[in-house]
Specification:
Length: 239
């Protein structure tokens, strides 16, 4: 912890990659942990375009349940600690999460790699709509064409938005400390940003309740709950 604090103290530009683990203590399920979403749902059924084309109602049931959970979820001490990290330094959060909790906590530079659960997009004409009701009546129809609306998130086999990728890339290689929090670091290209920073000689600090594929390259691995470790890392930072 002392070593991580020291790295943070010297850092003027911090880039943070977050995953579902940072929202776990807000009561939102992760994907790959025991009891996680991928134990109850087949990835191919609910997180691919093929699955949506096969059974859109199943996919909407999955996302409506997650919207319902996310609506009442509040940022936890981990989100708040990251939001408080910005005094005197530039902090960019690259999040794989679609729940909007970093913004709710007050982080002002958030790059949403996998989209946002509060937006919907037409599967035919790509029109994007925000602030739809939590329980969308099925089938949710586009206002501009006969297409069906889908969540505006990135499923497996889909490309991340090129502008989003460029922002993430720039933040990852121009920071002087890269934090990785609560992600299994298995999904590409999101996980690759930690490797890009490492390749540039930038120190990488990981916070996770267990080791991951990035644990071997990190300067410091802090094993434990993000809601406990991040506030401890940020306090006494002495800027
Ligand atoms: C705690 C904690 C606590 C718990 N405190 N810690 C290169 C090599 C191999 C494969 C590929 C490759 N490039 C592309 C691919 C294919 C694929 C991929 O990566 N597959 C791998 C899984 C093998 N990637 C893609 O398809 C991506 N698109 C793409 O690359 O396009 C180009 C292309 C297309 C086709 C072929 C090839 C290239 C798109 C990926 C989209 C992922 N989408 C999802 C759903 C988003 C919407 C939604 O939320 O519903 O994103 S899947 C899901 O996984 C979600 C997450 O954002 C993502 C990552 O999961 P995350 O956040 O890491 O969660 P978990 O559950 O895995 O981990 C939680 C962690 O927290 C654990 O480590 C816990 O220990 C920890 N934890 N509680 C601290 N309290
Ligand atoms: Zn449309």
């Amino acid at each position: 912890m002392d070593q991580a604090r020291q790295l943070l103290r010297g850092a003027r530009k911090v880039c943070v990659l977050t995953g579902a683990g940072i929202s776990a203590e807000s009561g939102l399920a992760t994907f790959r942990d025991s009891g996680g979403l991928w134990e109850k749902h087949r990835v191919e059924d609910v997180a691919t375009m093929e699955g949506f084309e096969r059974d859109p109602e199943l996919v909407w049931r999955f996302y409506n349940a997650r919207r319902k959970a996310a609506r009442t979820a509040e940022p936890n001490p981990a989100h708040l600690a990251l939001a408080g990290l910005g005094a005197g330094r530039k902090v960019t959060v690259l999040t794989q999460n679609v729940d909007g909790l970093h913004q709710k906590a007050g982080s002002d530079d958030v790059v949403e790699l996998h989209g946002n659960i509060w937006r919907v997009r037409c599967s035919q004409c790509a029109a994007v709509y925000a602030d739809r009701p939590v329980e969308l009546p099925f089938p949710p129809r586009c206002e501009r064409c006969p297409g069906m609306l889908r969540p505006d998130v990135v499923w497996f086999g889909e490309l991340l938005d090129p502008r989003t990728l460029a922002l993430a890339e720039e933040a990852a290689v121009s920071c002087d400390l890269f934090l990785v929090v609560g992600t299994s670091a298995q999904v590409q290209p999101a996980a690759s940003f930690a490797f890009r920073a490492y390749d540039r000689g930038i120190p990488v600090v990981e916070v996770n309740k267990e080791p991951t594929p990035v644990s071997n390259l990190v300067a410091v691995s802090l094993i434990g709950l993000a809601g406990t470790i991040l506030p401890a890392l940020v306090e006494n930072r002495g800027n």
